[in-house]
From TrEMBL:
Keywords: Hydrolase, Metal-binding, Zinc. It comes from Planomonospora corallina. It holds the Pfam family Amidohydro_1. InterPro entries: Allantoinase (IPR017593), Amidohydro-rel (IPR006680), DHOase/Allantoinase_Hydrolase (IPR050138), Dihydroorotase_CS (IPR002195), Metal-dep_hydrolase_composite (IPR011059), Metal_Hydrolase (IPR032466). It is an enzyme of class 3 (hydrolase). PANTHER family: ALLANTOINASE (PTHR43668). Its EC number is 3.5.2.5. The keyword Zinc applies. Its cofactor is Zn(2+). Catalyzes the reversible cyclization of carbamoyl aspartate to dihydroorotate. Homotetramer. This is allantoinase. Gene3D superfamilies: Metal-dependent hydrolases.
């Protein structure tokens, strides 16, 4: 007897979308059957035309606890994740205090998260000046890789690496096959905004700054034979060097975010600093090129870069406001709205938002509906409609650029290891 069987006309498998019955026992998927050959189970759910997707894996989330829990926190972030069909998040090493740059800080982060998580949580460590010789210890303590900045991070306790220290970090990580994930903007090309408007802010962080930093990472990764990943690609200028590096055998992957794929600089309202992020949202033409980068496989993942802040930090001045977008709960309908309009299917979205982020973070058993995988599943109505109300989201602070937008697609139910995610925290720390 199985614990659960879920049937849908639209089950999204690694091989594509088809009618199927997914059987679950003891939290794992035990079989994917034809609907008329489904095994017996204690509980059954027939979704009809509502799609069954693998639980999403969001490998770029700033939870900010401990230290800045008033910005977010594990309880609120993971409830938002579950409501958005995300069953695993990977927490960034900043903006918590202390940042996750040594095993003691990781232990503090785990204590803060214990018993408070609605979904599963893994952790990135940080690579900063002063801890590069201790990356192995962090790796052995369980982090999934090491985040670094090449330009100022926005918080003093997480300083950037220069080229020499980046090379040192890559060489250290390569010695144990660790992964380094990079916020890639060249600080030499960044300036202070000339004024408070969005065009002035955008001009202060040109796409060339991203491209030049990506080329630096590529050269040093080739030299050290390290595995690297480029975070939140916003500029299409990065696509050609990334494609060329992959063809030449450099072990490099890259991600982009829902806001870069769905928003455009031309549409940012005056003073609407909920749209501010670093690197910035660029032009509509640039957005089109990023979609092509996904289609071509140059960009691997679509993840939120959920970087929340309290409303008082989002002052209506693009030079002074905190840079970060809150979207953890909304990523799936945001991306599906635009992906479906452009002719992409649910298998594409599942690859970009579940399978590939799971592979990036080394999360075996996550990100796909397959025998032996964790039964992390999402009932997603691809034809449903959702009008975003920031105050109704589970994020701790009601700030999002999507407020008032009508999106296509609604998450109906989320299962974590075969159990519906409810009020009682059931996530584990990976």
């Amino acid at each position: 007897m199985h614990d659960l069987v879920i049937t849908s006309r639209r089950v999204v498998l690694p091989q594509g979308e088809r009618p199927a019955a997914v059987a679950v026992r003891d939290g794992r998927i035990t079989g994917v059957h034809d609907p008329d050959a489904a095994p017996r189970a204690a509980e059954r759910a027939d979704l009809g035309e509502v799609a069954l997707l693998p639980g999403l894996v969001d490998s770029h989330v700033h939870v900010n606890e401990p230290g800045r829990t008033h910005w977010e926190g594990f309880a609120t972030a993971t409830r938002a994740a579950a409501a958005g069909g995300v069953t695993t998040i990977v927490d960034m090493p900043l903006n918590s205090i202390p940042p996750t740059v040594d095993p003691a800080a990781l232990a503090a982060k785990r204590r803060a998260a214990a018993g408070r998580c609605a979904v599963d949580v893994a952790f990135w460590g940080g690579a900063v000046p002063g801890n590069l010789g201790a990356l192995r210890a962090l790796h052995e303590a369980g982090v999934r890789g090491f985040k670094c900045f090449l330009s100022p991070s926005g918080v003093a306790e997480f300083p950037p690496l220069d080229a020499a220290r980046l090379k040192e970090a890559l060489a250290e990580a390569a010695a144990f096959d660790g992964l380094v994930v990079v916020h890639a903007e060249d600080p030499a090309l960044l300036t202070e905004p000339a004024g408070p408007t969005y065009p002035e802010f955008l001009g202060s962080r040109p796409g060339e700054a991203e491209r030049r930093a990506v080329e630096l990472v590529i050269g040093l990764a080739e030299e050290t034979r390290a595995r690297v990943h480029i975070l939140h690609v916003s500029s299409a200028l990065c696509l050609e060097p990334l494609a060329r590096a992959r063809r030449s055998g450099v072990m490099i992957t890259a991600e982009t975010c829902p806001h870069y794929l769905t928003l455009a600089a031309e549409q940012v309202p005056e003073g609407a600093t909920a749209f501010k992020c670093c690197p910035p949202i660029r032009s509509a033409d640039n957005r089109d090129a990023l979609w092509q980068g996904l289609a071509d496989g140059v960009l691997d993942c679509v993840v939120s870069d959920h970087s929340p802040a309290t409303p008082d930090l989002k002052v209506p001045d693009f030079a002074a406001a905190w840079g970060g977008i809150s979207s953890l709960q909304l990523g799936l309908p945001v991306v599906w709205t635009e992906a479906s309009r452009r002719g992409y299917g649910l298998p594409d979205v599942a690859r970009w938002m579940a399978r590939n982020p799971a592979a990036l973070a080394g999360l075996d058993g996550k990100g796909a509906i397959a025998v032996g995988a964790d039964a992390d599943l999402v009932a997603f109505d691809p034809d449903g409609s959702l009008t975003v109300d920031a105050a109704a989201l589970h994020h701790r602070n009601p700030v999002t650029p999507y407020h008032g937008r009508t999106l296509r697609g609604v998450v109906r139910t989320t299962w974590l290891r075969g159990r519906r995610v409810g009020e009682t925290p059931s996530g584990v720390l990976l």
